[in-house]
Every structure is written in C-alpha cells, then in structure tokens.
C-alpha cells in the first residue's frame, strides 16, 4: 500500500493527489516488472501487433497465389477455346455482342471465390509475333471506381498469332509497410489492387 503522507522529521506531510497517482503508477510498474507472468503479458502486448500483421500478410500472399493459379488455368482454357476456332464459330453478331459472349464464357471458368466484376479479358491477333501487343494497359478509373479501359476482342482467323490476356483486380491492404499493390484507384477512397495477369500466346490451328 502506498502511503498518502510523506515523512518529514517528526510529523507527516500530506501528498498531493497528482503526486499520489504517480507513486501508485510507479509502484504498479515495479510489481509488474518483478512478476514473471505480468512481464510475459507486457512482452506479448509489444510483439502482438507485428506478429498478427505478419500472419495477415502471409495469409494475403497465399490467397493471391491461389487466385493467380486459378487465373492461369482459366486463361489456358480460354485460349484453347480461341485457338481451336470454337470462339469464332460460337460467338457471332456485332463486335460488342461477341465480346460480351466471350467475357461470359471466361467468367464460367473462374472459381467461385473470384467474382467476374474484377475480371477483364483482352484478345488480340496478328499475322506474326511482332504485330501483337503485350504491354500492360495504363489503368484508369472513373469517379465511381470503375475501370474505364476498353478491352479488345480480335480472335483472328486460322494460322494467325493470338494473344489472350486475363486481368484480375484483386483488392489488397497494406500491413505494417508490407504492400503488394500494383495499382491504386485514386478516385474511390484510394482502393488498392494487385492486378493479376495471365497471358497465353499461340498460333491458331487450322479449323
């Protein structure tokens, strides 16, 4: 128990309330420092934020790798559909109708945990490898956070080089400086994304 009086000679002088609180806090810390269990609790409180941040960062990386693997699988199936001429035969109508039908097909190949709202498909073709574009687009957003880039759909004909690319905007968070963001939507509360990309380049078959 901490006394509220200070001894000075023969009589005791009262201690001010603020000073009393300081003495109590000091006494409490002294008890904690000499208590092994309390010391362990203090050490854990210091380390816990970094530990939980590291665990969340690892979990985020694992999920992103799973999403990337699923996107690669979807891209392979999509490219095969184009290279064998099935996309050209089944998706008819105007260019917009064909592209919409193609996007819907790609969506059917995606796993349930990856929504189609973040998926963008781009198909380009040319007579040789030097005529196709493999550069990643410079992503732009409108005021509502929607991607404004226009994807292409040009599946080509027999014997042409076709590039099928799938882009997926995976939302991520920055934890204790760990940041895997590749693009940030500056128009919608600074939402951060890691843009996953799967690409397939091949020559169409004779169908």
- Number of helical segments? 4
Please tally the β strands and state the result: 6
Low-confidence stretches: 1-5
Radius of gyration: 31 Å
Strand/helix succession: EEHHHHEEEE
How does this model look, in words?
The chain is an alpha+beta fold and 207 residues long. It has one domain (36-203). The protein is built from four helices and six strands, in the order E-E-H-H-H-H-E-E-E-E. The strands form two sheets. A four-stranded antiparallel beta sheet has the order 3-4-6-5. A two-stranded antiparallel sheet has the order 1-2.
In short:
With 207 residues, this protein is of the alpha+beta class.
Secondary structure blueprint with pairings:
Elements: E1 5-8, E2 11-14, H1 17-33, H2 36-83, H3 86-90, H4 95-108, E3 119-126, E4 161-171, E5 183-185, E6 191-203
Antiparallel strand pairs: 1-2, 3-4, 4-6, 5-6
Quick tags:
207 residues, alpha+beta, two-stranded antiparallel sheet, 4 helices
């Amino acid at each position: 128990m901490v006394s509220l009086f200070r001894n000075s000679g023969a009589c005791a002088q009262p201690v001010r309330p603020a000073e009393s609180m300081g003495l109590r806090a000091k006494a409490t810390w002294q008890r904690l420092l000499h208590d092994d269990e309390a010391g362990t609790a203090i050490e854990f409180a210091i380390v816990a934020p970094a530990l939980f941040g590291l665990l969340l960062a690892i979990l985020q990386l694992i999920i992103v790798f799973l999403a990337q693997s699923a996107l690669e699988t979807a891209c392979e199936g999509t490219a095969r559909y184009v290279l064998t001429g099935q996309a050209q035969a089944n998706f008819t109508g105007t260019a917009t109708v064909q592209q919409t039908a193609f996007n819907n097909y790609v969506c059917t190949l995606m796993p349930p945990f990856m929504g189609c709202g973040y998926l963008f498909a781009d198909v380009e073709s040319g007579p040789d490898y030097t005529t196709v574009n493999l550069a990643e687009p410079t992503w732009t957003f409108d005021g509502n956070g929607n991607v404004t880039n226009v994807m292409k759909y040009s599946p080509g004909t027999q014997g042409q080089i076709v590039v099928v690319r799938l882009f997926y905007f995976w939302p991520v968070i920055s934890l204790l400086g760990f940041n895997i963001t590749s693009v940030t939507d500056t128009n919608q509360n600074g939402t951060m994304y890691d843009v996953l990309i799967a690409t397939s380049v091949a020559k169409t078959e004779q169908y």
